[in-house]
Design brief:
The protein has about 140 residues and is mainly beta. Helices cover about 10% and strands about 30% of the residues. It folds into two domains: about 40 residues, no CATH class; about 70 residues, Beta Barrel (OB fold (Dihydrolipoamide Acetyltransferase, E2P)), CATH 2.40.50. The protein has one helix and ten strands, in the order H-E-E-E-E-E-E-E-E-E-E. About 15% of the residues have low confidence.
């Protein structure tokens, strides 16, 4: 049985990097060694004061597989915005016809606003995310018909 050596200095540096960049998780690997540091979204609160995670709503839609032919997926981890400004109308609504290259959302990642564009023309069949939602790489954001 091999002894597991944990590099606590590396873990501390990765945790500091999370704070500096605003990322929710970071992972590094070397060979078969992998270290992943993630935070739960509650910044700087002692464990005893953290609120429990809200229970999922019973009517919540299951996540769709990114292999769906009309799936538009997130190319990055970040915070999704449905409009260019807080008081502006959303870029798209269910039922809207979109053209290839049209902006569908904005994802903020590391304080950079990244437009998410339609990969093809179509009609918005389902919106699977809301304004201000955190999104993960590869997560399905909407479905085009």
């Amino acid at each position: 049985m091999s002894k597991l050596e944990i590099d606590t200095d590396l873990i501390r540096r990765l945790a500091d990097l999370l704070d500096e960049t605003g990322l929710s998780e970071i992972e590094v690997s070397e060979g078969d060694m992998r270290i992943r540091v993630a935070r739960d979204g509650v910044a700087h609160a002692p464990a005893a004061q953290r609120a429990p995670a809200p229970a999922a709503a019973p009517a919540e839609q299951p996540r769709l597989d990114a292999s769906h032919p009309g799936a538009v997926t997130s190319p990055m981890v970040g915070t999704l915005y449905v409009a260019p400004e807080p008081d502006s109308p959303p870029f798209v609504n269910v039922g809207d016809a979109v053209t290839e290259g049209q902006t569908l959302f904005i994802i903020e990642a590391m304080k950079v606003m990244n437009p998410i564009r339609a990969p093809r023309a179509g009609k918005v069949a389902k919106l699977l995310v809301g304004n201000g939602d955190p999104v993960e790489f590869g997560e399905v954001l909407l479905i085009l018909e």
